[in-house]
Prior knowledge:
Layout: H1 11-23, H2 28-41, H3 45-57, H4 67-79
Amino acid sequence: MATMQVKSIDDQLYNALKIKAKADNRSLSQQVVMILKEYLSKPDPKLQHQTDEFLKLAGSWKGDESAEKLIQDITNRRSTKRFDFMDNINVFD
Length: 93
């Protein structure tokens, strides 16, 4: 198991940790580990917000073409040679 040392902790924070540890019947080290575990086990609110915003968009496409037609158009564009325009260019002239 790894060991971690934390320096320059504000006295007020240190005392609050000691009080919380005593109230929870833990050592100071156990309390800090518990707080870190609880914090890190929560989903990142920024990522959750991004997910929620993305999900709001789901189903919001309003178009006349069917999904099958859109997929076929995308497939056709991807299967076209990228450099077809160069077929008529002679670089050695």
